[in-house]
Amino acid sequence: MTQEQLYDKLIDLGTKGEIVPDRSLLKTPEQINAIKKSATLNTAILDHVAKHICAGMSTADIDKLVFDYTRQHGGIPAPLGYEGFPKSVCTSLNNEICHGIPDENVILQEGDIINVDVSTILDGYYSDASRMFAIGKVSKRAAKLLKVTEECVELGLAAAKPWGHLGDIAHAINSHAQKNGYSVVEDIGGHGIGLEFHEEPFVSYVAPKGTEMVLVPGMMFTIEPMINEGSPDFFIDEENGWTVYTEDDGLSAQIEYMVLVTETGIEVLTK
Ligand code: MF3
Ligand code: CO
Description:
alpha+beta; Creatine Amidinohydrolase; four-stranded antiparallel β-sheet
């Protein structure tokens, strides 16, 4: 499809009432190349964390791993200083849903589950992904949550198709979570990314199939559902203004992939 045909199609879909991305959200081949380099570094940082994370280390030690590795490879940790965030990575433990702040007094214990959310700026281009880690042997309850969360993201990814809708991804994720007795956090979602840390659109993981923005080749966004074992309700730490906790103190897990819509499918850029 030529650029002109693509723009005609967007106009046509728009007149039919579909939500279509602004043209500024469609990355050029040059931008895609540059963002892929950022994403490759982001994956390497997560691999570096995966190699070293263990019981007895503090979440501030994870922060140091991320900061040092990112700087040694020419990148900048995107969270550092972002809207006042004080560290280089988000570390969210057990009942923390997201945006946990690394702390030298928080020591990883056998049985913990933790989300490490790494975001990188390289040559001005942004990438973002997160993984769950089980510290040593974890409870059956925690292990099941991690397994189902991974299945949710994979099913969401499989449901994404060029010219489909963001809601198709949400539907796949939400129904699998519900089938397992879990809930999906509603008010915090994914986002467009690439030229900025957080771009349009907001990506819901509870929207119905066939709703929300059309997936147009050139779009980039994150698939990052937060799955709670109990209620989806949450509260934010009043002291630090960042850390999001489950209201009922249940466990929460999140996995984040950053993806690109192409003419033929969906490409995972970092995970
Ligand atoms: N990485 C998070 C996301 O997926 C954003 C964290 S914002 C920060 O959107 F400031 F806390 F880093
Ligand atoms: Co992230």
